[in-house]
User: Fold these one by one.
Assistant:
Number 1:
Amino acid sequence: MAQTAIVTGATGGIGEAVAKRLLEDGFRVVAVGTRREALAALCEKLGCEGLPLDIQDAAAVERALGDLQADVLVHGAGILGPNLPIHKTPPETVAQLLGVNLTGMFNVLRPVIRGMLERQNGTIILLGSICGHVAGAGPGIYSATKAAMQSVAANLRFELHETPLRVAELRLGRVRTGIHGQLDMNTDFYDGYECVLPEDVASTIAHVLSAPPAVDISTIEMMPTRQVVGGTRFSKS
Ligand SMILES: NC(=O)c1ccc[n+]([C@@H]2O[C@H](COP(=O)([O-])OP(=O)(O)OC[C@H]3O[C@@H](n4cnc5c(N)ncnc54)[C@H](OP(=O)(O)O)[C@@H]3O)[C@@H](O)[C@H]2O)c1
């Protein structure tokens, strides 16, 4: 029987490429996104199953994912913008970023991990960012959510180390998906830059999943060749 993979963020750039790759690799793919029409179009195009869900709605996520016997979770649902420094980010924007990127992630993890533990099988892959550990790489609140994701991945590995469940976190540099439109910077971010492509991320995920069961490729940083982080800035008074 085909293994089941849940892909959140499947209506987005990376999620769609991951759904396509996992279908090609023989998985049954359950695709999650909020936009019903986009999700229906994706399912029509790829042949996956669609679950329209706002992951901030804990009860709806529990109802939808609770009984799915997932062997794999690729959690790509997330938001990035707007492009504001921390002290200028309004409370409702903070709540939205924390709601989708953190509370939403926990809402998805609860039922999925419970089911994986019942069956003693599963791989969880979280789509993180270099913003989680590099200051200034993205908006401050977004970056804080991705820093928290790094902690979540590490703590899950700790909590689950007496089980066969695997947890992997991909810390991505710039991937050309359109998400940077949320910063009003798609053109500035992509024109002339050779970004990582969504299908490159999908190939890496396929590699993580193909590792022997006793091997957890736990943390990966994936960057465009010409994008680097590091150095310091020192301003004069
Ligand atoms: N692209 C990059 O350069 C990059 C770099 C580092 C990390 N990442 C991370 O990789 C992940 C995917 O990024 P992407 O570039 O593919 O972004 P994207 O194209 O904007 O896709 C984002 C996905 O998240 C879904 N989503 C947003 N809010 C949701 C909610 N409340 N409930 C359920 N789904 C929701 C969207 O679904 P709907 O559109 O249907 O609402 C969409 O499918 C994100 O977590 C992002 O932070 C991306």
Note: Residues 8-15, 33-35, 38, 53-56, 76-80, 100, 104, 127, 129, 172, 174-175, 177-179 surround NAP (CB under 6 Å).
Number 2:
Amino acid sequence: MNTQPPKTIQPAEGKLGILLVGLGAVSTTFIAGVTAIRRGLARPFGSLTQMGTIRLGKRTDHRTPLVKDFVSLASLNDIVFGAWDIFPDNAYESATRAKVLRTEHLEPLRAELSAIKPMPGVFEQTWVKKLNGTHVKRGKTKRDLAEQLKDDIKSFSDRERVNRCVVVWCGSTEMYSPLKPVHQTLAAFEKGLETNDPDISPSMIYAYAALSLGIPYANGAPNLSVDTPALQELAQKNGAPISGKDFKTGQTLMKTILAPGFRARLLGIEGWYSTNILGNRDGEVLEDPGSFKSKEESKLSVLDTILQPELNPELYGDMCHVVRINYYPPRGDNKEGWDNIDIFGWMGYPMQIKVNFLCRDSILAAPLVLDLALLMDLSKRAGLKGIQEWLSFYYKSPMVAAGLYPEHNLFIQETKLKNTLRYLMGEEPITHLGREYYS
Ligand SMILES: NC(=O)c1ccc[n+]([C@@H]2O[C@H](COP(=O)([O-])OP(=O)(O)OC[C@H]3O[C@@H](n4cnc5c(N)ncnc54)[C@H](O)[C@@H]3O)[C@@H](O)[C@H]2O)c1
């Protein structure tokens, strides 16, 4: 393995096109936020690329620049937005319907948001049962549809004069699907595009189109999408970074903050019951058992790799972990999550922790879209390709190379992300060894 940092990272010159698949609650909250920040109307709270700092060298060196001053990232002023959706609403109309942002915050941005009109999407209702898209592409084969998406990307790039693009999936959660033979090799996948293989989902067609052009692709939903050997092969072949799956916000974020603490203090867990009420379109889509199964797999996986029950069977070997999502329209995007955690300590005495998180889903997700777009673009300019495991920080169900287990602990993920930035810039990784080591 090459452990030398890349010799050069191409500078972030010119415009960066951020192409969003799905112009719903998350995408419009993201676009509105960036537009407001550019105009000095809001601050980028929650974004590591905009507000995060990174320590370099020893603590006594006092070198802690902002991340964005340390690595070359696209400036917010150089971002141009594009989108696809299966409904024709522009970003202003969609944001109004999503009811995440208040009128007083949307109205000043009306002109910019209204100008963002989605391109027709690639859609099949078998994959998202609850939606009946009207603004969709037609094509004889899935290969034709992929070609239409590639044409969209090229026309967008020419029209907007962008130097580089990234694609971020912010579309609805597709039905759960296990890996099938058509996903195993690029050759099988390309044949499947020609023959309209039913196991190729719309999100895979978007990923294929982006990667065919060498464009980075980030997957914010739990469906397989780019997490297949076939598309990973294409990413390697065309030098495109990929990352996923499922933005880590809300309840799972809390879990990956709390569980590492219990594990560090060797507190046992008998059960962890999580339930949510949610009333946005995402919640409606997740009412379908197929879409919920994708989400459930993604939400359930986090505790095992943090707690490692195989190493600590007495503490975590018999844990009952349940996750529920209930669609409850009055709440809109303001999800409420409850966690009941039954833990035990010294001599087996039981204790309980209750967490009631009244969160705002899209407010938590929007800065992740920004960071991922900028860091995926950085990866591309640094010559990184294939799975970007260092971006696990942002995902509920991080993609990893075959044979590795994903890292879910938020604090290890943060260290990994920052050490990767240090590595890219030729700085020493931080080990946290102190002076006592030498005495
Ligand atoms: N908000 C969060 O905290 C969060 C966290 C993790 C993951 N996610 C995921 O992010 C995605 C977006 O969430 P949201 O709240 O914005 O949902 P949303 O329902 O408001 O928006 C999704 C949009 O995608 C569109 N769409 C669906 N299929 C499409 C296709 N094939 N092509 C183009 N557009 C398509 C829908 O019409 C809709 O406008 C969901 O999959 C959700 O599970 C959200």
Note: Residues 361-381 form the longest helix (21 residues).
Number 3:
Amino acid sequence: MKQSFAVKNMMCAMCVAHVRKAIESLPGVKDVNVNLASNSALIEYDESKISPEQIKEAVVAAGYDMDTTPLSAASDNSEDEKKKSKGFLGKLFGR
Ligand SMILES: [Cu+2]
């Protein structure tokens, strides 16, 4: 499962490193990519081993905050792709 979550209270690269460390040290987390510009963390995790709530706990323990509801941008990627191809086909058929 790969999802993006909103992370709050990050101010600089050090914060990003703290948040990343807190998340990546958790069991069940395979990969973490924390983005300061978008205040988000793209997390690849095993949902049978860890929940967003548990990930949030680690982020809060590190001094930051995280939404447990995934950002739609990450989970809706396939939807966007569908829309794009629909538009492309629409153009192709002159609609
Ligand atoms: Cu900082």
Note: The first strand starts at residue 2 and ends at 8.
Number 4:
Amino acid sequence: MAGKFKPKLTFRMRLRNKLSLLGLFLVTVNAVFSGEPSTATNIPTNGYARSFEDEVLLVIEEPEFTEVIENITAAAGRNVKFACSVKNLGSYKVAWMHFEQSAILTVHNHVITRNPRISVTHDKHRTWFLHISNVQDEDKGRYMCQINTVTAKTQFGFLHVVVPPNIDDSLSSSDVIIREGSNETLNCRATGSPHPSVKWRRDDNSKITINKTLTVTEWEGENLELTKISRLDMGAYLCIASNGVPPAVSKRIKVSVDFPPMLLIPHQLVGAPLAYSVTLECFTEAHPSSLNYWTREDGQMIHESRKYHTENIIGSPAYKTHMRLVISNIQQNDYGTYKCVAKNPRGETDGTIRLYTTAPPTTSPKPTTTDPPSRNKDGWANGDLNNSVYGNQTSLNMHLADKGSKYQSNLNEIDKSEQKSSSENDSKGVIYDWPASDDSSAQTIKISTLWVPILIIFLYQR
Ligand SMILES: *[C@@H]1O[C@H](CO)[C@@H](O)[C@H](O)[C@H]1NC(C)=O
Ligand SMILES: *[C@@H]1O[C@H](CO)[C@@H](O)[C@H](O)[C@H]1NC(C)=O
Ligand SMILES: *[C@@H]1O[C@H](CO)[C@@H](O)[C@H](O)[C@H]1NC(C)=O
Ligand SMILES: *[C@@H]1O[C@H](CO)[C@@H](O)[C@H](O)[C@H]1NC(C)=O
Ligand SMILES: *[C@@H]1O[C@H](CO)[C@@H](O)[C@H](O)[C@H]1NC(C)=O
Ligand SMILES: *[C@@H]1O[C@H](CO)[C@@H](O)[C@H](O)[C@H]1NC(C)=O
């Protein structure tokens, strides 16, 4: 029962039994695309059949396609329609099929497939429209329009379905907390058609440190391998998936780098005369944020009072904090040792500042207050300000700004003497240069716990 049949008979059959028609079309489709003529083989050709066919062909003009079927590219979710224009259809019928699925979709005005997104319309003239609503990826392929002439006539158009990219959250990295110095690979898995490409950027557009020798502003690939992560790598990373089908999508992955507190003490020896005020300073770096406080040498915590004013100024990046302790109206028992302490879940660090007495300046009346600290735009006091300094009685160099004075010790000489005295007198104390990557211009750090040096050396090796 291949293609050679009387049309009338065929379609009477269809009305009784759609299923058998479906089989019929499938045979036809296969025959056409395997290159065999659909009139082939299993029908015995006798003289009568042939003469009947010839007779019909002579009398009736064969149906013909009048236009090619346009190929369609559509994004998933759209509605599309294919048009098949036929002249001289007569009593023949037009069917739509999906070639790859070997499925008859519609015949004449009837929808055969169970796919509810398929429908068929006719413009009452020549054109038969196949409608596909809410196009899905599985709908892609070759759509055939076929006329059930004795030798079936077929033409086709392609449907290309494109799918905008999507990032699969379950297969992609989410926010991570990493110990400084460890390695981490961030993943971003994206789907879409065509297959999307994935690239990485940092949210603030700073460079991505891939390894010791390679930094990039953009990294391409589903995996972003970060080796020996440092605090400078902390921040939000974006993976961006695109395939030319809008919209591109991105996922923001926050990378937190944990490390124990580190302290930078620009001035470990600070001199001030009786009755003056003085400001002691420590700079900390810690993530997660440390608990910061000051103590006297006896370990007693210093609380806010008329004598003491403490401040923690968050820096930039936010793992930096500027600790300030203002001691007002210095009395004899205020001289001695002060400690700034920083604690976080990764560890604890403290540093010592010694306040010693100096002679008051003779050139002006005693001030009773300190000036507000001068700060740069990040809110950090500038450690290298040319402030009045009590470093050494002989080097006393006071600028009395109106009625106030500043007693921040800023001279390099003091730093040098500090280094010396610290190493001589503090058995636990170790002095390191601050890592060069740090934007602080301060020169020394004093650390009284053992693990920080290891960390610093580690930083150096990066
Ligand atoms: C549709 O696409 C096919 C294959 O890509 C091509 O051979 C055919 O010419 C295209 N048809 C039209 C109308 O562009
Ligand atoms: C991190 O990666 C580097 C380079 O691939 C490797 O040499 C090192 O051993 C890794 N470190 C850890 C802690 O896995
Ligand atoms: C850094 O990473 C790039 C890219 O993965 C690699 O080609 C290069 O060898 C790496 N360099 C080092 C020092 O690991
Ligand atoms: C401090 O300021 C004075 C005058 O303002 C200037 O002459 C001197 O060079 C400065 N010293 C430093 C170390 O900046
Ligand atoms: C500190 O004063 C002493 C004498 O009192 C002097 O020898 C020394 O050079 C001074 N140091 C500095 C850094 O000015
Ligand atoms: C360090 O110790 C020595 C002797 O122990 C002492 O003479 C010196 O003044 C001390 N220096 C400081 C800065 O405390």
Note: The pocket of 2-acetamido-2-deoxy-beta-D-glucopyranose (ligand 2) is lined by residues 182-183, 227 (CB under 6 Å).
